[in-house]
Amino acid sequence: MAAVPSSRQRGNGPIQIFVQTIQQAKRHLAAAAVARSSSIFLMYPVDTIKTRMQMGQANPLRLAGIFKGVAGSLVGQVPYGVLTFGSYEIYKETLTNRFPNMKPVFVYALSAVFGDLTGSGWLCPSEVVKQQLQAGMYSSTGEAISSIWKKKGLTGFYEGYFGGVARDVPFRVSQLVAFEVTKTVALKLKSRRSSSTANAELKLSGVEAAICGAVAGTFSAAVTSPLDRIKTLLMTDSQAYGGSVVSCAAKIWSQEGIKGFTQGLVPRVVYIAPSVVIFFTAYELTQQRL
Q1: How far is CA 21 from CA 6, 14, 273, in A?
Q2: Cα 223 to chain center, whole Å?
Q3: CA separation for the pair 17, 164 (Å, rounded)
Q4: CA-based nearest residue to 54, from 254, 224, 262, 248
Q5: How far apart, in whole angstroms, are the C-alpha atoms of residue 73 and residue 129?
Q6: Angle between helices 265-289 and 225-237 in degrees, nearest 10
């Protein structure tokens, strides 16, 4: 990750800081864009199957429409990554400067949460369009956008926003904590096999980092799967589920019981782990060639 210049060395305005952060990290952002695009596209069919299962559709494994909405997803996810990364660096620097005694893990966790919240404003509309296409509600991205706008205007693109935030914040925190714990264990095991006694010099290889990320991603995907189903239902049929996280959860519980919260769990876990591996592999290969 690119080093961020201190506020003394650059403008103090948040927009100026954001722009300079992006400029400093162009190589990393380009690699992240390629990696994110690759992982989203290759794993998109699994994501579609997960959405169909969460909606209780018959024959969720059907091939028809398996890539519906992939273009909109890419348009939403890649800029979302840039927004999240840029703001993450700003939050990290601000927290480090204002709270120098705060433990780094808390700085990273809070920065990641705030970064995701910053990017969520861009991500939510593309998620609404993507999931409604995956559900077979529309035949094309243009039709989906036009219909949503005519029916509900701008607010239609933000249905399920709080459900998405309720899923993403716990997901980021659990993912970060799980990754740090897994990384610590991996480094300890590596130090035992290494002849070097300087543990500080030990670093994870690209493959090892990918494995740690896959473990962390699998864990965080599993524990936040109930929230992911709530987000899906709110984005695809908000009125039927009361329009809020609480009302949606209550309806799932009353109609389906505890099993209702596990719909789509397996595809979600199967989707996250390979996605992380693909992301890290593509990221490293692209970065080496830039």
Answers
A1: 11, 10, 29
A2: 14
A3: 27
A4: 262
A5: 8
A6: 90
Listed in sequence order, the residues at least 6 apart from 257 whose beta carbon sits closer than 8 Å to its beta carbon are: none
Residue with tokens 């590596």: 190
Token pair 């809070």 is at which residue?
110
Start-to-end CA distance of the chain, whole Å, equals 14
pTM for the whole structure? 0.62
pLDDT class of 82 with cuts at 50, 70, 90 = confident
How far apart (Å, rounded) are the C-alpha atoms in residues 251 and 239? 12
Q: What pLDDT digit, counting tens, does each position of 205-225 carry?
A: 777 878 888 888 888 889 989
Q: Are 165 and 235 in contact (CB under 8 A)?
A: no
Question: In 3D, which of 57, 51, 76 has the Cα closest to residue 134?
Answer: 51
Gyration radius of the chain's alpha carbons: 20
Count of residues making up the chain: 290
In 10 A of CB 161, how many CB atoms? 20
**CA dist., res. 285 & res. 290, Å (int):** 9
- The pLDDT tens digits of the residues spanning 94-114 come to 898 899 999 888 888 888 888
Q: 281 Cβ partners below 8 Å, 6+ apart?
A: 35, 206, 210
Closest CA to 40 of 278, 285, 284, 289: 278
- The whole-angstrom separation of Cα 4 and Cα 24 is 7
Using alpha carbons, list the distances in angstroms from residue 212 to 28, 49, 201, 280, 283.
20, 26, 18, 11, 15
* Residue 135 structure tokens: 């559900």
CB atoms within 10 A of CB 99: 12
Q: What is the model's pLDDT at position 7?
A: 46
**How wide is the angle at C-alpha 208 spanned by C-alphas 202 and 211, nearest 5°?**
145
